[in-house]
Amino acid sequence: MTPASQPAQRPPDAKLLVIDKYGGLTHMRRTSLVDLLRPDDLVVANDATALPASLRGVHARTGCPVEVRLAGRRSLDEVREFTAVIFGAGDFHSRTEDRPAPPRLKPGDRLTLGPLAATIARLLDHPRLVDLHMDAPADAVWAGLARHGRPIQYAYVPIPLDLWDAWAPLAGRPVAFEPPSAGFALDWRTVEGIRAVGARFATLTHTAGISSTGDIELDLKLPFDEPYRIPESTASAVARERAHGGRIIAVGTTAVRALEHSASLDGRVHAGDGLATQRIGPGSQLRIVDAILTGVHEPGTSHHRLLQAFADDATLCRAGKELEAMSYRTHEFGDSVLIERKACGADPACGVPSGPALER
Length: 360
Hints:
Number of strands: 19
Strand content: 25-35%
Largest sheet: 9 strands, mixed
CATH topology of the largest domain: QueA-like
Strand order of the largest sheet: 3-2-19-17-15-4-13-14-16
Distance between the termini: 24 Å
Order of helices and strands: EEEEEEEEEEEHEHEHEHEHEEHHEE
Structural class: alpha/beta
């Protein structure tokens, strides 16, 4: 596996590895995704657009350069209060894990971020992690982000990203910190294909957070709590397709988090706002989602841990060897994997019946 180094969301040669509920592996072209669907399936995607959440600036007390990466918020409507990860000098050309620490931060410190000013409201439980208050009205914050912000970017893409590189065709409100990039596989033609086979398509909005902080200790805290909003139409569609025996196929880890958190109390997806606080991993029982379409994630990341709720370690290990052998591309502009939730008989911890195996 190699990182995708060009910001192409839907390259014509994009690959798809399908892992069925019994652990079978099949390689396909990603454009064949709709061929796996059947009537009464429901595909649910996150329609959040990525903010220009990387802000270069100066730590006023010391005069040192910093990069602020916005990383959390308490609601989709909040635009002045953020959780942020702060780096010292440098930019995306350096690997995140090689970035220097910021100057010693204190509550009350001011940051000049281009046209914006911000105050560190409090330090959190890591030297790079703070709560940040934007010292401007909401309209001015939006304007400052648009003028000065850049997409959060990592060194494996060597050229600066334009904002539209991080915006999927189906994206809506700019509320994510990094793009929910599993959705890069979809466009309006894909949605037409989904509906043409009798399946259905719906969206929710989830504040996709950052995928790496550059620090092993801080990365263990990912994902941070993330707000989401589920429309009434999507909640109704999930209930209807589950009643009809259809499968719920989530596009990306964020869609899984939102659906499963919403259903955590009574097994039903509810319309409205929520805050996904859970960590989904190998010990989790999935109540709603039958399959996930996702990018190629490396072991040890929070995204990969979520995949362990769908497939056991042995299956994911075999899949990893296949991905390596077939030169799949990783990260947000890479290839895709479709994983169906493991059959109950394959794992004694599985307590929720799964739908029929994906057709090939």
